[in-house]
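ok, trying the design again with the full structure, not the truncated one.
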């Protein structure tokens, strides 16, 4: 099997290392040195850019580049009927994500988004307990995600911000664990260490 990996930063490197024993890999990254270095380590080949990679006769592609690149790359993979694993979040805006979801449905495309918590045994057990009624009527689910430090400023600019970048896991898992159609509201609060030191939560967002 021949798999392409677009973006070999933090998470793309992890995906490439996990795949290396199972597939022939083709890598690309805007930072050519990063792709070349990892390719040397894993015995992979390097494509000049994402377009060249997508056209190199792949069986599937992993999109692990910066979030702002996901919509165009995912669209390009679907247009080639190439099975795609795309890191979360799928897009920086709801409109873009909705357009891609419609395209996926129209083409019956094989796409998976990187919401790995759905395969975590603890979350799966919680989902089962909710669905079977073992936990009774669910009024509130609290989900907390903690990170050591804020990401670098350059990363924030291309990430969609903390709600899209990190809290999207909480939006996803609350819907997964609960029966999503029964949800009345999801509210999310975010704090960073500096604000916690001062005892305040810096941002608040909600969906109803
Ligand atoms: N599922 C998860 O838990 C999880 C964890 C970490 C990151 N992510 C997601 O993965 C994505 C990457 O995050 P990261 O932390 O690895 O970021 P990163 O900045 O470490 O890596 C991104 C890489 O993409 C490359 N890149 C950017 N534009 C490109 C393009 N057009 N073509 C090829 N390469 C390009 C950059 O040079 C960089 O090496 C983000 O969308 C992030 O939200 C998901």
């Amino acid at each position: 099997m021949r798999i392409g990996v677009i973006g070999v930063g933090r998470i793309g490197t992890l995906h490439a290392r996990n795949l290396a024993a199972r597939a022939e890999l083709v890598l690309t990254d805007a930072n050519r040195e990063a792709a070349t270095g990892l390719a040397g380590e894993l015995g992979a080949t390097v494509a000049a850019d994402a377009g060249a990679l997508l056209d190199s006769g792949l069986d599937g592609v992993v999109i692990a580049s910066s979030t702002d690149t996901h919509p165009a790359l995912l669209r390009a993979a679907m247009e080639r009927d190439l099975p795609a694993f795309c890191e979360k979040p799928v897009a920086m805006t709801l409109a873009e994500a909705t357009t891609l979801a419609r395209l996926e449905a129209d083409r019956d495309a094989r796409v998976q988004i990187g919401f790995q918590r759905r395969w975590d045994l603890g979350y799966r057990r919680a989902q089962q307990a909710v669905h079977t009624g073992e936990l009774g009527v669910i009024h509130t689910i609290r989900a907390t995600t903690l990170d050591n430090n804020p990401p670098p400023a350059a990363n924030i600019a291309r990430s969609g911000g903390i709600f899209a970048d990190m809290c999207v896991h909480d939006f996803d898992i609350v819907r997964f664990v609960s029966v999503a159609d029964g949800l009345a509201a999801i509210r999310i609060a975010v704090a960073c260490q500096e604000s916690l030191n001062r005892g305040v939560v810096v941002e608040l967002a909600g969906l109803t």
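Keeping the full-length input from now on. The radius of gyration is 19 Å.
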